[in-house]
Records
---
Amino acid sequence: MKPTPYFSLPTFLTTTFLFSMIVASQLLNGCASTPDTSSSTVPDAPSLSETLQIQCNQDDMSACFHLGIAHLEGREDENITPNIHTAIPYFDKACTGDLPQACLVLGSAYAHGQGLPKDELRAVQLFEKACNADVFTACGQLANAYYSGMAVEPDIPRAVQLFEKACLNHVPSACFQLGLAFLSGEGIAPDTRRAIQLFEQACQADIPEACFFLADMHAHGQLLPHDQARAAQLYEKSCAQNYAQACHHLGLAYFQGSGVVPDQPRAIQLIEQACNADLPGACNDLGLIFSIKDSAHHNDMRAFRLFEKTCQANFQPACLNLATAYYEGSGVDPDSVRATQLVDQACQADIPNACLILGVAYFQGEGVPADKKRAAQIFKSACKAGNAQACAFAKNPRHPDLLH
């Protein structure tokens, strides 16, 4: 018995705040405006960065903050290349001078070890300082710290309070996290209707994880009406914001014609995009597409390489598919020993059917010395785990499927 193709199940990734997004959000949410430099149009007048430097030297903290932004993002018109290391001292000065937006950016740098040694405790302190000054994105960051236990004791109720504070003050990523809390009932009474409302609010504000959650609910008919077309629309929106899982699921929708007109080239493009973003399930599924015999995209060598790469990343479903390639000699020389080693590895990881296949290998002596006693033990164990075929083999060692 050879392994059957194993398609990955969706997994949900924890939301993170990218450093560049934090900076951009603060420019949009309450930071003092860039100083007036209209005089820079006069010949020989100081450039914008020179004006900011003069004002920063005079302890204008807003100028220091904007100068930090200039160095962080770069300014081609003034030959300033992006450099977080030159930006950090300006954010540090502005934060010390009680500009809370700068404390948020500095905290994020400490949290991620960007431009500074990683120091999660210092990051939490800075997030708290900024949150107390009503920089609400910082409240969301502080909530994440309390939720995950980053440098503080985990405190789910406190995290939920902070997510709610940030959400009420127009931080959409916090609305998404608050929705997760309402969905799970962690730190707050469960309320699926409120959770969905918050996901929709966050999705409308272009939080890709929220759109993905809603899409998956529609795709599986869980908590929302089963609607493949609506699911595809939401996957599309999330994928457009480079959320790899959404691109993966949208690719599968195009491959299967679920809610969209089937389009295999588009499907492959999307799944490959997700694979290139290091999403192992996407790489596994891409390998399966290339392994389909008599298809326009059949390419055993490419399928083998994808399974091998993804198995090496410890994604066990790909290891089971890699075993198929070794058993069948698809894209690689046949090697039943290596194949059975991979099946054993997948069985230990509880991948469906892997233990059944391992039992058959021991029964028939494929890749291992024949050992019917060991095969019987494996079948009994797989049967207890709910594998009906393993139960049949355990009950009847002379089952026709075992003897050919």
---
Amino acid sequence: GHGQAVSAQNVSADLERAGRLDRTMADLAGLLQDQVLGALWQGSLEQHPNQKLAARWFTRRGFDPMVAGKLLRQIPSRYDADQALKFAVALLAKRLGTPSTLPHEAGGIIALCGPPGSGKTAAAVKIAAAGTSRFGGNSVALLSLNNRGIGGQEQLLTYGQLLGINVRAVDGPERLADLLDKLADKTLVIVEGASHWADEAPRQAQRRALSGLESTGLRVLLTLPAYGEARYLDRVVDRYATPGASGCIITHLDAAVSPGIVLGTVLEQRLTPLYTTSGPGDRVEIESFDGSVMVRRLIQEIGSSNPAMTGPNVVGVNAHGAG
């Protein structure tokens, strides 16, 4: 009996020491996080301590401090920390926006451009399917500038047969204008661009061809993979955006470690997100983009220790009047 009592006392003492150690580590982690936040925001949090909670929220979700800082500077100084956080998150949803009309609803010509592996084919097929549901197969065409070899072309033709739409491979961007003229009777034409990530000359040739067609109503949509780092995503925009390109599709959303990275790129590059895609291989799902839904997903996926962020009206209530 005495041995058991001593053993229980030892366990209790060990647990108490472990608890103190955990609290010390948590205090150190919090202190380190505050120091990192202070360094990232270069002293602005000292002047505006009500922004610290919001700064931590954005940092945990991968937002670049420069991008988040532009939102934080809009927070009224009279707000306490909880109000400041709700205001910043609502403002984020407002800035991300929600498109009033999507390409598969409005029709026209859209070209999907982006790096290899960014989900252009899957997105193109899904948009074509949505257009087919709306306009009928005879009114939709899918073109591909992607020289993917015989197997890849057959796969795209198979998709076309399943949807009952016209699918064609385009032999070079210089032939695109003529082919689009022949498809003038189509309500919706989707062009899948080639990647040419490492090949400057063909990428620029494609860019010039698409840019020249923007005056006829063609819209370039960039495919931004949500798993990309900020520098990589900036290079994607630099390499594939045409002068008139402002729309984008956030792809592979389910693979994003920090969704704030791609959303920060969208804000910084002044892009308009229209769709998101997620899911593996041939089970890819496409959804229309909604800024409020995206922000709610950020709250739910990473969670929030702040009770103010768990209510039903977190998004869209406190940012009225903020530009």
---
Amino acid sequence: MKKIALLSCLFVLALHAQDRPTSKEKKLWAWSLAALAAGNVADAQSSWKAPEANRLLADSRGRFGWQSAGIKFGLQAPLVAFQLWQAHKHPSTGLYKTYTVTNFAIGGAFGGAAIHNYKVRQPGQLP
């Protein structure tokens, strides 16, 4: 996970151009951050108090809880902070486009995981 995040950051920096982003590109990027956060929240909510397959996120009983949510959001926060820093210090069209596509894709993947989580739960097991 760390290697992928680092490689993604380096990839974005390599694509960095000096052209200024438009207002439309900035707004779309902001919406992509919202989609990323919404997907992450939906995934966490759909996993709440359920058995967790990811050992990194599972608590001592093997379930998803507060500790798991803290880890999950704690991993996302620095990546979003890095995007915000890059957008402020080195704004470019390429940077905004790359982050926008990446955020929408990852947010969609989290949303897909949430849908899967709801499908595999037993009827009386809703959070």
---
Amino acid sequence: MQTHPGAALRTARQQRGETLEAVAARAGLSAAFLSRLERGEASTSISSLARLASALEVPLERLFAPAAPAPAQAGYVLRRGRDESGFENDAYRYKPLAGGLPHQAASVFELHYPPGRGEELGYYDHEGEEVLYILEGRLDFMLAGRRLRLEAGDCLQFDARQPHYACNPGKAPARLLMIVAGHRPGLPVAPSFARHAAPPSPRRKRHEPSHAKAIPRRPGAGRPARR
């Protein structure tokens, strides 16, 4: 059933004539991790794959088994329910449901989270926005340090440049629909936040006063010395 995206990543990178270091740097990942991912020795999240797809200027769906092509004049792509292409990592498995149009604006996935999994992936971020619709079970969704409890029937839309991840705190599997929109290959990829790190605190504005104490000048300091 599962198709690892490693081979597609390597093919896309080699077609561009780029090194592991160059692609990994643009995606905010390490070259060592990308090397293991290409060899099928590591798993990753949709968010990291979105950043890699943008760095390689390819549609996200190209990293999975392609759907059967529709006639060019049809203007649609049909995926049957029996199509089992997808990928499974240590935290969840996902299956592409849409993609393949010449100028598509969104990617759609079905995700399955086993009980007690997901938190080990830590925070990720990428360009664009996401919509999550919970089909079964429940999820705890971490968004820029906020924990949101999502249950069947709930729908969440958010700016994907915020650090985020999901985990399943329940005892039953969770299943959801994920739509990634605004992910256009070739645009600059947002830098990744450190895994498991809290979002950065806002910088102090320039007009805010500094709390540093001024050092008093000595009498005569700065005057030219008398000869």
